Amino acid sequence: MQGWEAIRAEVLRRIRAREWPPGGLIPGEEALSEEFGVARATVNRALRDLAEAGVIERKKRAGTRVAAFPVRRARLEIPVIRLDVLARGLSYDFKLLADRMASAPVPVTARLGLPEGANLRYLETLHLAGGRPYVLETRWLNPAILPDPGPDFAQESANEWLVTHVSLVAGDIAFTAEAANPREAEVLGVPPGTALLVAERTTQGTSGPVTLVRLAHAPGHRVQMTF
Fold first, then answer.
1. Which H/E stretch holds residue 10?
2. Which domain holds residue 60?
3. Within 10 A of 145 (CB to CB), how many other CB atoms are there?
4. CATH value at residue 171
5. How many other CB atoms are there within 10 angstroms of residue 193's CB atom?
6. Where residue 224 falls among pLDDT bands split at 50, 70, 90?
7. 127 and 190, same domain (yes or no)
8. Where residue 55 falls among pLDDT bands split at 50, 70, 90?
9. In contact, 119 and 102? CB cutoff 8 Å
């Protein structure tokens, strides 16, 4: 087992399975690092994340316990764009515009916690609703999380494949209003500089960094969240 995300996922699994019940004391960092074969700092990072999420309680000289009354945090589920379109009563289709391996820009590798110059899979996908441009998805994808042979994203969109095949443990998302760049304007069929709703998201899985994706929505898009 490698990486703090994998340790976090296993600790969370044991808590949910009641192997470590609410209020119960869990093994210390030294014992866990020996069991998982990782550095104590790796275990510390995983437990710190779970403590911040309200799943466990850590106190000096008192050990670490499963929270008796875990704090409930709002969780945002990553939507499958195809289902979102169909729920609006519109027909769905998508076009894969680009799919290649490339050296990722420094801002991308920095956001994902990968080495500078890492080769990632770059994908550009146009999602259509009722035959009209709906979302332009530009994505940097860590190939290490893909099976061999990798999926054919011309048959199933990367968005849908990742949501249904990859277990995620963490991520972040930001929404901004941005002027359409030349590429977005061309693909979405709008004048350059048109105001677009843009969502940018990074995700981490049990095996490490997964993806950084930018979703540029056609004008008039409305986002609704349930939490």
1. helix 4-16
2. 4-66
3. 19
4. 3.40.1410.10
5. 12
6. low
7. yes
8. confident
9. yes
pLDDT, tens digit, 9 for 90 and up, residues 160-216: 999 888 877 778 889 999 999 999 999 999 999 999 999 999 998 877 899 999 999
Instruction: Fill in the DSSP letter of residue 224.
Output: -
Tokens of 176: 């901004």
Residue 223 lies inside a defined structural domain of this protein: no
Residues 148 and 51 occupy one common structural domain: no
Around Cβ 188, how many Cβ atoms within 10 Å? 20
Q: Are residues 60 and 98 in the same domain?
A: no
**Number of structural domains in the chain:** 2
CATH number at residue 28: 1.10.10.10
- Exposed, middle or buried, 61 (CB in 10 Å: 0-12/13-18/19+)? exposed
Residues 114 and 191 in one domain: yes
Contact 178, 188 (CB under 8 A): no
Dihedral sign for Cα 81, 86, 89, 95, please: positive
97 and 57 share a domain?
no
- Is the pTM value of this prediction over 0.85? no
Same domain? 210 vs 118: yes
DSSP letter for each residue of 122-174:
EEEEEEEETTEEEEEEEEEE-GGGS-SSPP-TTTS-HHHHHHHH--EEEEEEE
Cβ atoms of 200 and 210 within 8 Å: the answer is no
